[in-house]
Amino acid sequence: MLKFGGAGTAEKGQEADKGREPEPRPVPDAERTSKFVALKPLDDPATRKPKAADATTALPRVQRTPDVTSSVPQVGPERTTQQPLPPKPPLDLLAELTNTPPPPDTPVRTAIRRVKIWTPLVLLLAVVFAVAQAARPLPTPELQLTAEDSYTFQGTKGDLPWPADGQAALDVQGIGSFGASGEQRPVPIASVAKVMTAYLVLRDHPLKSGAAGPKIPIDQAAQDQAKAGQESTVDVTKGDSLSQREALQSILIASANNIARLLARWDAGSEKAFVSKMNAAAKDLGMTNTTYTDPSGLNNTTVSTAVDQVKLAKAAMTEPAFREVAAMMSYDDYKGVNHSNWNQLVGKNDVVGIKTGTTTSALGNLVFAAKKEVGGETRTIVGAVVRQPAGGPENTILSAALDAGDKLIRAAQGELKSATILKKGDVVGYADDGLGGRTPVVATKDVTAVGWAGLTVKLTFAADDLPHTAKAGTQVGSLTVGDGSGSAVKVPVALQQDLVEPGFTDKLTRLG
């Protein structure tokens, strides 16, 4: 039977117990069937406070024996080795620091960012480029020709009196060639071969104008050959000597074969060695149809053409001593004997040389040179006629060669004329500084050319060492009219105005 008073007392007791933590209820031994063992503490034991088990929610604990061989499960996030992340853009880093999200990318923001990044680099490169361009060496100035590079004489070329037989060739030194006649095939040239002998001796032993030169001992061979009497010689005696100039007079005027051989032995040690030098010199001069087998030309195996002999004569006439000897009408040898020049044209009609050559097999041959003054300039006409036959009982092979040569000389002298191509002060070109600057260049005097009707002459520039700066009037080169040889017309050219160094802008913008 229940008592309401007791019930009330119980309710009051429960209310009094509110606020106090209930004391744990003893667990009977029958309920202690398992025990929970944590494989790994969830928290640090040193800092975790133990809590009383909630009897109302505790699960039955099952006693388990730990397996020491099983793997320990991963607790917490998986840890892996990673590469450092690339640095974020400055605006993104700023957004992280200020907790402000970066503004969204737009084409304008992208362009501005790129300009800010690249502008300093571009400016730096521009400065480096400007300094490098300014410090680069300047190109060497060059002369450029603006005048016409050729001039053709008006009119029709006249007919020259070429010989009917044999071969002939005719040139004007420094200007050009009149042409040639006959088949240019190698033929014997007799004593004309002594032109090469004299040319080689002077090349190997230069002789100043008017000088006698060294003494040449006369050997037994030269004396014996002088006594033979079967060829052209001069009388000499072993043990004597003659000067180099007299030896040249002996071969070019008296056509002495014995002295030609003596010179060969003196120059090269033997005639054979000298002949080798003769053929080498012929090759150097472009004498493609010439072969020498002896220094005198007496052998018929010494052959050449009129064109080749003109090439040699033009080279020999550049030697002062050769010109002086070839122009002599006669000479006295060291024994006092006078010898007349076999070239009887010398001394007449401005003929100044060069050499005759006659044998029965070679017939009449002549290499000649003559002068002609045209337009205030003296020109040298050089020609050759070979293998000229006798024209009758009184016309010998020598006279036939002399006659043929004389006709060609007179015709060439009549054909030559002068023409003014450019006036003094005419602009003929410019000095190019290599960076676009051009300074006019003018002729310092009238430019004239010598030639004949129908002839075309060339104009070429030859520059001096051009400076980067120079005053107006400074000579910077020459204008050559003709074939470019020593006898061609050469007129100095000068700057019309000051030559100045290229400016900074020109240096900066050059590409080459």
Q: Could you characterize the architecture of this molecule?
A:
This protein is an alpha+beta fold and 512 residues long. Among the domains are: 91-135; 142-154 and 421-509, Peptidoglycan synthesis regulatory factor (PBP3), Domain 2 (Sandwich). It has helices spanning 4-17, 90-98, 107-135, 194-204, 220-228, 244-252, 257-268, 271-284, 306-316, 320-326, 397-415, 504-509, and strands spanning 142-145, 150-152, 167-172, 176-181, 187-188, 215-217, 241-243, 303-304, 330-332, 338-340, 351-359, 363-374, 377-388, 417-422, 427-432, 438-443, 447-451, 456-463, 475-481, 489-495. Strand 12 and strand 13 (377-388) form a beta hairpin. The longest helix has 29 residues, at 107-135. The radius of gyration is 57 Å and the shape is elongated. 33% of the residues are buried. Mean pLDDT is 83; it is low at 1-19 and 52-60.
What secondary-structure arrangement, pairings included, does this model have?
Blueprint: H1 4-17, H2 90-98, H3 107-135, E1 142-145, E2 150-152, E3 167-172, E4 176-181, E5 187-188, H4 194-204, E6 215-217, H5 220-228, E7 241-243, H6 244-252, H7 257-268, H8 271-284, E8 303-304, H9 306-316, H10 320-326, E9 330-332, E10 338-340, E11 351-359, E12 363-374, E13 377-388, H11 397-415, E14 417-422, E15 427-432, E16 438-443, E17 447-451, E18 456-463, E19 475-481, E20 489-495, H12 504-509
Antiparallel strand pairs: 1-15, 2-18, 3-4, 3-13, 5-8, 6-7, 9-10, 11-12, 12-13, 14-17, 15-16, 16-20, 18-19, 19-20
Helix pairs in contact: 4-7, 4-9, 5-7, 6-7, 6-10, 7-8
